[in-house]
Design goal:
mainly alpha
């Protein structure tokens, strides 16, 4: 006969599971690799310096969490999540939403600047055409 576990018992089993050393090593390697990749991209000028603190902060947070997995377990228990991995994925999603919002704000600002520049350029072109017409008469191809 197969005993049936309640959801509360399953959650307790998930939360009591020990941390495998491989997961910690993978987390450490990932955080150090991210930091190295950010520095390499900045050095090659593929990533602007203004984004470096954000990504180095993410790498530092990953390093801190990989060294202190008990913090993730405590946060998992506090929020009622079932597993630490689900909490990590949730935090990753929150970070991605924040990055997307940041880029949406930047794109909106850039669109306004592009529109203003296009209008300014059109006004300057019209003024230049008036000056040329006044100085040389109407163009021959007109």
């Amino acid at each position: 006969m197969n005993p049936t576990l309640t959801p509360e018992q399953l959650r307790a089993i998930f939360l009591a599971a020990s941390d495998p050393g491989a997961a910690r090593a993978l987390a450490l390697a990932s955080s150090l690799s991210l930091a190295a990749a950010v520095l390499w991209l900045v050095r090659r000028r593929s990533l602007r310096e203004e984004y470096t603190p954000i990504w180095m902060g993410v790498a530092a947070a990953l390093l801190l969490v990989s060294l202190r997995l008990d913090w993730i377990h405590a946060l998992t228990r506090a929020t009622g999540a079932w597993t630490s991995s689900s909490m990590i994925f949730f935090l990753g999603e929150v970070f991605l939403v924040a990055i997307c919002l940041n880029y949406a704000v930047r794109l909106s600002r850039a669109n306004v600047q592009i529109k203003n520049l296009a209008q300014e350029q059109a006004l300057l072109r019209a003024r230049l055409d008036r000056v040329e017409t006044a100085a040389h008469g109407p163009p021959l191809d007109a």
